[in-house]
Amino acid sequence: MADSEPRKIRNICILAHVDHGKTTLADHLIASSGGGLLHPKLAGRLRFMDYLDEEQRRAITMKSSSIALRFNDHSINLIDSPGHMDFCSEVSTAARLSDGALVLVDAVEGVHIQTHAVLRQAWIEKVSPCLVLNKIDRLITELKLTPMEAYTRLLRIVREVNGIMSAYKSEKYLSEVDSILASRPSSGEVGEESGVEFVEDDEEDTFQPQKGNVVFACALDGWGFSVHDFAEFYASKLGASAAALRKALWGPWYYDATSKMIVGKKGMGGGSKARPMFVQLVLKELWQVYQAVETDGKKGLLEKVIKLFNLNVPPRELQNKDPKVVLQAVMSRWLPLSNAILSMVVKCMPDPITAQAFRISRLLPKREVLNNGVDSNALAEAELVRKSVEACDSRPEAPCVVFVSKMFAVPVKMLPQRGPNGEVLNNFADEGEDGASGECFLAFARIFSGVLKAGQRIFVLSALYDPLKGESMQKHIQAVELQSLYLMMGQGLKFVPAAHAGNVVAIKGLSHHILKSATLSSTKNCWPFSSMVFQVAPTLRVAIEPSDPADMVALMKGLKLLNRADPFVEVTVSARGEHVLAAAGEVHLERCIKDLKDRFARVSLEVSPPLVSYKETIEGEVSNTLENLKSLTGSSDYVEKTTPNGRCVVRVQVMKLPPSLTKVLDESSDLLGDIIGDKAGHANRSLETQISNVAEDENPVESLKKRIMDAVESDILSGNENDKEHAEKCKRKWLKLLKRIWSLGPHLIGPNIVFTPDPEGMSTDGFILIHGASHISEKLGFADDSGPCATADRPSSEVTQALYFEGERLESSVVSGFQLASAAGPLCDEPMWGLAFIVEAYISPLTAHSDESEISHQHSEQYGIFTGQVMTTVKDACRAAVLQKKPRLVEAMYFGELNTPTEYLGPMYAVLARRRARVLKEEMQEGSPLFTVHAYVPVSESFGFADELRRWTSGAASALLVLSHWEALPEDPFFVPKTEEEIEEFGDGSSVLHNTARKLIDNVRRRKGLPVEEKVVQHATKQRTLARKV
Ligand SMILES: Nc1nc2c(ncn2[C@@H]2O[C@H](COP(=O)(O)OP(=O)(O)OP(=O)(O)O)[C@@H](O)[C@H]2O)c(=O)[nH]1
Ligand SMILES: [Mg+2]
């Protein structure tokens, strides 16, 4: 099978929203064309492709897997994919290996959020889609629609899906989410451009039933048809041309029985109750069969249909007492599902040769190479390789190019034990640690050019490989000898000695060379395929440890295997030494843990509650910038701390940065790292790709400076719309401040700033001020030459000079103190967010009452310690300053899109309210009974959200969450009710339950082992009450 002629191959995947019937459909295709793997009687119930226990138990697909089918003389590699959000990375891996996609839509549920996502994925990967409108039976039996109503509904779904496709085509697509999250309004230019394209591309719908690329199906009962199937039938029956019927069986066309003509609406005459041909000739017949089976008295109708369509149904099946069996017996013979689907696949989907010519620009985009200094032979060969991928050259002498879209684990015992000639294969060889764990890793791959053979030597190229860079690329290329090749039959594997271009296979022998995905090539002179696009990032993090510490090694090994087996999991070790597992969502996480426990680590585990990150900030009246600035530069409002040896006094003031500035700093951390880290050459290169709105020739430093200025200015303007003078004053003050940026934190690039102290606040009483240096301002281009010169006013006495010298050396301690503080705030040791500090550190000379030699000894000894003292004191002072200025907790927010039928709106709002969600907008979806609600949901409240929503709405509501932004909780974590009203409203402060911020902080502190103030004894009465209840 693996050596079919490329023109006779189709590589396809099934994509859809969760539960729209992908795996059920696959069952029918396997039953009819899978070479006896599945008995037709079990089709639709077995869910053959869901072979993992967890998939069967939960009844959802969790991974994409492939099966080779045979239809007429065609080989069809079918990949079933999961529809659940958590596994959307598997959709990317499936789409990459396919040329065509069957996009399913449940006729009752209509287009859902994952339908959008999979259409987008297909579009990005240049996969040709066909539409399957599934679960048509539900329109008859559940919604009890008339054929006409059903037609209107189907029409609307087809239109909607076409609308989505045309939006992608015109590149005008900006999802709701994107537009809300986009920080900058799109410029007029872009709008105009796409407007032009939009007009151009309005031409043709992607999905047109009359073209045969839409199938109407009921995967459960095993039937389906395209309008072409009916056209053939009616052509002979009505004596019309099949071609005319194909066009007229969808859309506003009517059959005039008297004149035997196909006419438009007008031709039917006003007032007539005419129905479009699709309703009259197609849907009506279907409805009749369903009704005939349901109501005993109408058996005659059934016979009429059997006769009309000349069906051969065994009487035994017709007499069955179960109406479902009768229905399936008739329908699957009348309109066999697999026939309808597979003929559409063969007819409307491209073979690998056609497809690769079209997909090449996505798979291997053309590289612009400047022809100077590169190895021209290498370049020429790489071009040739690209050409042979484009042509899907399957000759043995063509370069062999393969793409591996994921690695997956199978138990070793599942591998075929015997080769094609009956020889026993040694499956344990060369698998090392994997062999010992009973798991073997296979690559899920497609051959794009040449012939791949078992035992062949091949190069594994990582995504960063560049054939023109020679020696420096060594770490991105490895030479490997492949072991075996298999044809995938769902869970089963069939040994094949070789496979030609255009086929999908599993490869053994790459487990130690590929982690997630890679390109394989028989020559070094080949560019790696472009990376796949994933819809979400793994964001749900938990810490994992073995229940028995002795099992640590097993756990680490297990994590390594899991990381390899799952394309989307991330395993890291946190700063505190915990093993952190990141998954895409709760269902994904649960499966990972189960896999770890049962397959990869085989030890019992402890899993922490999800680790949620927070930030810490202060409450700041953003609108009152000038006041803020005054409080920062005025000298009264500071926290003062002294080092233990009394030689250094630290005064710290803190203020909240304008939110827009915080955002710019946060978003530009990579860029700042490049600028600050002095990696100038590198910076220039990486910047253009980072910030898309930077014009090519614009200096990235300049543009960042401008963004910072714009952020500050917009903030000033929004706060002082009416007071120009005030605004000017603020701006001048800010400009001055921006010349004094000493450092950013945490990690030197975070969204917090420490400014150098005001040089005018001068040294007194023998104490001198550590000036600091505005390094960052200089690097960002803010400082100018006229800035204050710190050395100008230096007194010249020897002692003071030594002191100045010491002060300069202590500057780094001050910065380190600030770094420590900004990395761990006072509330719960989480990083600070959007704060500006001014640190004034004064040092005094050593008191000279000992003799000289002792001083110098003491001096040097204490100096070592002194830097540490200064650092700690600065850190403590910064943290204390934050505590004094109304500290607030900042939490991450999801943007959520929820869909629900109107009747469940109430329960859905209840769930949202319990989760502290903020509703942004709600609207009725046009032409459907669904309501769409947009809301912000705190990440900390999102765990179990989907489950709760499902429970409360009987599964009718669905939600999609994407990470959006950081937001400060307005609540004061230290709020204690004082006035009578407050006590009445919030209690006497004995319970922290009302205080969400406090609760969250305490949770983090407990997790980190920090002291938590729990008023256990203080409120003993409360405890007694509790005790009595128990
Ligand atoms: N009424 C009706 N139910 C169907 C039809 N097709 C599938 N179902 C049911 O829909 C449910 C989901 O079917 P699956 O095939 O598992 O759906 P899926 O798209 O593979 O789901 P995921 O892989 O988890 O995304 C099952 O209970 C099926 O029996 C249909 O045509 N009509
Ligand atoms: Mg499925």
UniProtKB/TrEMBL annotation:
<keyword id="KW-0690">Ribosome biogenesis</keyword>
<keyword id="KW-0342">GTP-binding</keyword>
<dbReference type="InterPro" id="IPR014721">
    <property type="entry name" value="Ribsml_uS5_D2-typ_fold_subgr"/>
</dbReference>
<dbReference type="GO" id="GO:0005829">
    <property type="term" value="C:cytosol"/>
</dbReference>
<dbReference type="InterPro" id="IPR027417">
    <property type="entry name" value="P-loop_NTPase"/>
</dbReference>
<dbReference type="GO" id="GO:0003924">
    <property type="term" value="F:GTPase activity"/>
</dbReference>
<dbReference type="InterPro" id="IPR009000">
    <property type="entry name" value="Transl_B-barrel_sf"/>
</dbReference>
<dbReference type="GO" id="GO:1990904">
    <property type="term" value="C:ribonucleoprotein complex"/>
</dbReference>
<dbReference type="InterPro" id="IPR020568">
    <property type="entry name" value="Ribosomal_Su5_D2-typ_SF"/>
</dbReference>
<dbReference type="GO" id="GO:0043022">
    <property type="term" value="F:ribosome binding"/>
</dbReference>
<dbReference type="Pfam" id="PF14492">
    <property type="entry name" value="EFG_III"/>
</dbReference>
<dbReference type="Pfam" id="PF22042">
    <property type="entry name" value="EF-G_D2"/>
</dbReference>
<dbReference type="InterPro" id="IPR000795">
    <property type="entry name" value="T_Tr_GTP-bd_dom"/>
</dbReference>
<dbReference type="GO" id="GO:0003746">
    <property type="term" value="F:translation elongation factor activity"/>
</dbReference>
<keyword id="KW-0251">Elongation factor</keyword>
<dbReference type="GO" id="GO:0042256">
    <property type="term" value="P:cytosolic ribosome assembly"/>
</dbReference>
<dbReference type="Pfam" id="PF25118">
    <property type="entry name" value="EFL1"/>
</dbReference>
<dbReference type="InterPro" id="IPR056752">
    <property type="entry name" value="EFL1"/>
</dbReference>
<dbReference type="Pfam" id="PF00009">
    <property type="entry name" value="GTP_EFTU"/>
</dbReference>
<feature type="domain" description="Tr-type G">
    <location>
        <begin position="7"/>
        <end position="243"/>
    </location>
</feature>
<dbReference type="InterPro" id="IPR035647">
    <property type="entry name" value="EFG_III/V"/>
</dbReference>
<dbReference type="InterPro" id="IPR041095">
    <property type="entry name" value="EFG_II"/>
</dbReference>
<dbReference type="GO" id="GO:0005525">
    <property type="term" value="F:GTP binding"/>
</dbReference>
<keyword id="KW-0378">Hydrolase</keyword>
<dbReference type="InterPro" id="IPR053905">
    <property type="entry name" value="EF-G-like_DII"/>
</dbReference>
<protein>
    <recommendedName>
        <fullName>Elongation factor-like 1</fullName>
    </recommendedName>
</protein>
<dbReference type="Pfam" id="PF00679">
    <property type="entry name" value="EFG_C"/>
</dbReference>
<keyword id="KW-0547">Nucleotide-binding</keyword>
<dbReference type="InterPro" id="IPR000640">
    <property type="entry name" value="EFG_V-like"/>
</dbReference>
<keyword id="KW-0648">Protein biosynthesis</keyword>
